[in-house]
Write a structure and sequence with these properties.
Blueprint (H helix, E strand, L loop, with lengths): L10 E7 L12 H27 L4 E5 L6 H4 L8 E4 L5 H12 L5 E5 L8 H10 L5 E5 L5 E6 L17 H11 L4 E3 L12 H4 L13
Parallel strand pairs: 1-2, 1-4, 2-3, 5-7
Antiparallel strand pairs: 4-6, 5-6
């Protein structure tokens, strides 16, 4: 990763991602977009997210990919010299997020973790999340579907990520309960929308970088 002077060098921004293989990404959108269409949408969301985080130039960036993903796609990105890659580890999403955050906190004071499903997150959101950790243990950007699109931490324990019904509308509510049960102090930022199912595609018509997907529909 190229050396750069960041305004928040004590923070690591992690992007959870996977290689955009046909038929293996955005599977819940395949009935609507087809395998090729769903893969193309994922690739564009992935590229946009990575470019967006790099352009924000706030902190070092790590792209954390699934074990079955090849690093080739990521090392061939035009901005590849500006991030490092690592592998996700853990038996479910909660374990993978906990492990990524805990690993990052071994080297950095704060870690912000996002996925590739929310192109509406921007520099201001990342900066607000980083600054929120000055006075909080964790920070979240809730999603309108009941999950969250961003999580940040300056301390973390496995209990925050256990007994969570991942992929349901109960994720944020259950996370709040876990945070409260473990005496964590947290802040929630503005609610965001992510792109997971057919009904979510309407949000992309509001985004200048994705409007063209719907010009012929």
């Amino acid at each position: 990763m190229s050396q750069q002077n960041f305004p928040y060098p004590d923070t690591l921004i992690i992007v959870f991602a996977r290689e955009p293989l046909t038929g293996q990404v955005k599977t819940r959108l395949i009935p609507t977009l087809g395998k090729e269409g769903a893969t193309e949408l994922y690739r564009r969301l992935l590229d946009y997210t990575v470019d967006n985080v790099i352009a924000a130039a706030l902190s070092p960036v790590n792209i954390c990919i699934t074990p079955e993903s090849s690093t080739t796609y990521f090392t061939q990105m035009s901005c590849a010299e500006q991030f490092e890659t690592s592998l996700q580890t853990g038996h479910d999403l909660g374990a993978r997020m906990y492990n990524a955050l805990a690993s990052g906190l071994q080297q950095y004071s704060k870690v912000i973790l996002i996925g590739t499903d929310c192109p509406f997150l921007g520099k201001d959101d990342f900066q607000q999340a980083i600054m929120s950790l000055d006075a909080n243990d964790m920070v979240f950007s809730p999603a309108i579907d009941g999950g969250y699109v961003l999580i940040g931490a300056k301390k973390v324990i496995p209990e925050i990520f256990t007994n969570i019904d991942w992929g349901t509308d109960r994720v944020m509510a259950q996370s709040r309960q876990a945070l409260s049960d473990n005496d964590f102090c947290w802040r929630e930022l503005s609610q965001q929308c992510d792109i997971d199912v057919k009904e979510d595609l309407r949000f992309l018509t509001l985004h200048n970088d994705f409007k063209d997907l719907f010009l012929n529909n």
